[in-house]
Design goal:
- The chain starts with a helix and ends with a strand.
- Strand 2 and strand 3 form a beta hairpin.
- The chain contains 2 helices and 3 strands.
- The relative contact order is 0.32.
């Protein structure tokens, strides 16, 4: 169902959407991990229309969170030629 929602978010001029899986990492928050992944993806991908977080996890050291990690699926419209 979540993937269908991503496809619905594709702009109307795109008939087809592509979904890629990304892993975002941050030392400060899950939100920053998501933002990092999307910002990095925009360097090579145009037209990102949405994302769905599949999983969130943290890395700990001595009882403290040292890294936030998110697995997400990012949708973007396939450009027609």
């Amino acid at each position: 169902m979540a993937q269908a929602q991503q496809v619905d978010q594709v702009k109307h001029e795109h008939r087809t959407a592509k979904v890629v899986e990304l892993i975002g990492v941050s030392e400060s928050s899950f939100e920053n991990a998501i933002q990092n992944a999307i910002e990095d993806a925009t360097n090579t991908t145009r037209g990102i229309t949405g994302a769905h977080v599949e999983n969130m996890s943290v890395k700990c050291d001595n009882g403290k969170i040292i890294q936030y990690k998110v697995n997400l699926k990012v949708a973007f419209g396939v450009e027609r030629t």
